[in-house]
Amino acid sequence: MANVAEAGLWMRNQDQRRPALPVRLTSAERDFFVALRRLADTSGLTLHALADMTSAPRSPGADAGESPAYAEYTATQWGHWLNGQSLPPRKAVRKLAEALAMADIDAGSLVDLWALAFRPTPYPQEPGDAAVRPQLPAGAPQVLGRTTDRAIDLPGSGDATAWAEFSNSYRQLSGSAARMFRLLSVHPGPDVSVPAAASLAAVAVDQAREALDELAKARLAAEGPQGRFTCQELIRAYAAEQARASEPAAELDTALGRLLDHYAQAMVTAVSLAYPASLSVPALAPRPGVLPETFGSEDQARAWCHLELRVIQSLMTLAADRGLDAFCWQIPSVMAPFLVRSGLLQDFLDSQQIALTAARRLGDPHALGHAHYHYAHACALLGEVADSDGHLQDALQSFTRAGDQASAARTLNGMAQLLMQQGEYLRALEREKEALRLRLAAGDPDAIAHSEETMGEIYSRLGEYDLAQRHCHHSLDLSRETGARLLEADALTTLGFVSLALGDHKRAIASYMEVLAIYRQADEQTSIAAALIGLGDAQQAAGDTAAARASWQQALALLKDQLNADDQPVQARLDRLRPL
Fold it and tell me: pTM of the full predicted structure?
């Protein structure tokens, strides 16, 4: 946690210093964000004011220390939305418009612009919302399945024959391909892999591939990169209608359950392989017909996580709308190490907002423990220290009540990391000693390695370098035995820091070079930048100014490619160098 935090990816509430909108936005999305920014600027509203306007009042039975907006929208989220990183939910935009109206501030066409920009989802965004039907050719049947929040333009600028063409192609499909076509309307998109489609339809992978190939030949689907398939929005609408006409509602619900099971099981497999020493989440047994994903290496597992992230985020929104609370806390908890290591901190916070709301509805201590822990972690990485401390306390209480000693130890480690972030090293040491005691009793080598590295990092900050090296070398031995490369990199990072403090510049450079090699192999840009900063520090201390400049310039380039990355520390290093 600490190494990621040191990379500088902390969200700041910069009301007047917003970055340029991402180039990936569609014109409709850009129109919405421009209108939202203009409204915020002209009204003089701060991020906290926006959060207050869209927050629910505290319930009478709420805890005294509980945020009144824990299940609504925070200042951090509004900052995220004003930067154009993702579209806010409809409820947030609607509540903002209503609050502005009460304050005699004209919100203009903000809600309408949101409807044009929002990417369609398989179900209404919120219970009770009326579905907006797609605009279909004259005489075409009305869509009863997949709902959308914006009009769909027909291919060929109003080609009235498109719907009939879909119908003609559909009638020529084999039974298995027709069923796959109908069930694909359940998938939220934007694309689907062959294994996920196999689980969706409860068929073998080769059968799913044959069905998808047949759909592609019939132009009812298109195969994209890496063997993934997509459907145009109007085709999805037609598929939804056929699903409602031919599939029992129970089968569509079961298909969605299989899809959620597929991604939950696959994420567990991928994260366990790529990110050891993470919290163990008790997963539900998958339904019959769910096929496992297999990964041949850590790199494959991480690549799958990146490839499926947008799909899983869409599924989380869908699961929250359907009240599937078990998935709403389990999948975000499982994927947390991936989001953290990848520097996707706002995605991390957003997913844990969903998880915490679901866990509170369930009232299960395991669910509450995991949700509080990860929400605390997200808050700490984004600089919300006060919120983080309270959620960690809640997590520890929940795990203790559930009798989960391993997760309690992980929470104690989180407390130690937070105390380090605040400079409270002696208190951090007490927490980590307790975490290490619990982990030694459990005997999990990766967890022990994690605590040993944290102990080494604390001692390094206290200037007790012999103890720091002893704990880090123990962590290094354990992580190399188990093959936990990222834990190995953490220990090497601290050893590099200690070597630099002791004036052993050659050893420090060697440590950071090894760290850099591990992170480059893992393709973790945030951690690569942090390793380059440390390497540059060691090179500068060794008198190699040219090498230090090159390392820092590489780090700066990586940080500038990441939204809300704090590149000022490395820029300051470069500014202090003598001109070339």
Answer: 0.61
